[in-house]
Amino acid sequence: MTNDSHAGQIIILNGAPRSGKSSIARAIQDEFEGPWINLGVDSYNAMTPQRYLPGIGLRPGGERPDLEELIPFLYAALYESIAIHAGLGLNVVADLGHHDSYSQPLGILADCARRLNGFSVLFVGVRCPIETIMQRREVAQEGRETLYLRAADDMPVPEPVQRWQDEVHRPGIYDMEVDTSVMTARECAEAIRQRLDLGIPAPSAFERIADGR
Known about the structure:
By secondary structure, this protein is α/β, with parallel strands linked by helices. It has helices at residues 21-31, 41-45, 65-68, 71-87, 108-115, 130-141, 159-167, 185-198, 205-210; strands spanning 10-14, 36-38, 91-96, 121-127, 176-179. The protein has a single domain, classed as Rossmann fold, CATH 3.40.50.300. It is 40% helix and 12% strand. A five-stranded parallel β-sheet has the order 2-3-1-4-5, with helices on both faces. The longest helix has 17 residues, at 71-87.
């Protein structure tokens, strides 16, 4: 799309729900120089009609085939918006949960990567052990029973939560990874800043994904 030296930097944070992506995105917005626009799943779903939710946040397992025809178009529109923002010189951080575990593979990540061809994209895998994710879900459960699945004696990790853990890091091609169980959001953001400042090796994960490598 562009090799303009004035284009903004793009950071894509990929991980399961409650892995800490949104906290890292906020830390980047608070700590990094210049304006950083958050175009992640929460902000995008806030614009999505209620009847089409969870939209791009549709979890793995092929649970809503009625929505799947729309999901690639939503992702395409989001990534085209990311490209427009970056093309105008704005930095973008997007916290997302990419997977391809629908009723049939949709190849969304590779399509998204191709839409950012020519931009500087740092693809960051946000890791977090399932035990920590379950602890965070327990905390978030208070007053929000309809949104978070609670562990039970007969199922310490609900199947949908385990599916996220299994599927969100496929194929697992990243420029760098962070673990939010051992690093705070600010520490993760600082590691990302150092990686960008170092610039070696140049970010290439999205190029490899786009090419099918």
